[in-house]
Specification:
The complex is a heterodimer of chains A (about 120) and B (about 110). Chain A has about 120 residues and is mainly beta. Chain A has strands at about 5, 10-15, 20-25, 30-40, 40-50, 55, 65-70, 75-80, 85-95, 105, 110-115. Helices cover about 0% and strands about 50% of the residues of chain A. Classes of the chains: A mainly beta (about 120), B mainly beta (about 110).
Chain lengths: ~120, ~110
Amino acid sequence: NAGVTQTPKFQVLKTGQSMTLQCAQDMNHNSMYWYRQDPGMGLRLIYYSASEGTTDKGEVPNGYNVSRLNKREFSLRLESAAPSQTSVYFCASSQTSGRAVGQQFFGPGTRLTVL
Amino acid sequence: RKEVEQDPGPFNVPEGATVAFNCTYSNSASQSFFWYRQDCRKEPKLLMSVYSSGNEDGRFTAQLNRASQYISLLIRDSKLSDSATYLCVVTSYSSASKIIFGSGTRLSIRP
């Protein structure tokens, strides 16, 4: 099994450009998440989807949109990239109930630089 | 005050040593606790859950102290391959948005 896959692995954008980060999981998990990780800040939740058809804001949603395309796929879109969005983006998935929420499986990450 | 705090380290210890680090959390309603490991430029991976009674997994022991609101991770007989950043995670069952990752403690094992 591939687990959680993300594309692309690296991306450089100019300020104002848009892009979509793709994420897919093959573990039949209900919940999926998007995080960003900045030096010294830890992982911060951008958006999550507790189940197919639902999405909710996390700690830092401004400047991002998401789509839960089906149970497997959860995409993150930057409509107008800003230098403050330079970061490493991780997608994760988990089962939904109880303790399983904290037992997350992560993709390899996308390293995004906005110039 | 951050909701989850960790000493960023780095902890630099010789191979074979025992090392321990703590993570404090501020929300007394937190319900589940975990340790993740993250290698340089890689994704985080679940190391172990932390249960109220404490639990072991080989050389790793995790403890929870609800009264003082901290969790700990003890690594015995440390190996070079244990060099990584260790993240603590605190969650509540009620909402996925209450998953909080600590900033991590960096551990370096020297030969």
